[in-house]
# Entry
Amino acid sequence: MANHRRGEISARLNDLDYTLCLTLGALAELEDAFQAADMVALTERFASGRLSARDAVRVIGAGLRGGGHEISDDDVAAMSATGGAKAFAEIVVRLLVATFGESGEAREATENPPKP
# Structure
């Protein structure tokens, strides 16, 4: 069960329920993957509302690993979600809102979900 106070969300992938969380380590992983200098730059990238499918794989993968699941990005790329690409985009948005809140840039990401 996801603990929303800790920034966790639940998501159903491959017909299994997972807990995702962008821990500090997961955020550091994303900073490296996106070549962001810091969390502000990372937040600005997410706020643009423009994320590729590969970006979604990275965010979901980091969230899964932050939630305690040992899953590679290649494994994430092969996963399915009911609702297809839209479902993956919604997972990314929910995870970012759980991590950064709904104010400022995170609100913009919620209003303009990323396009995988």
The beta strands are 8-13, 16-21. The chain has one domain: 4-111.
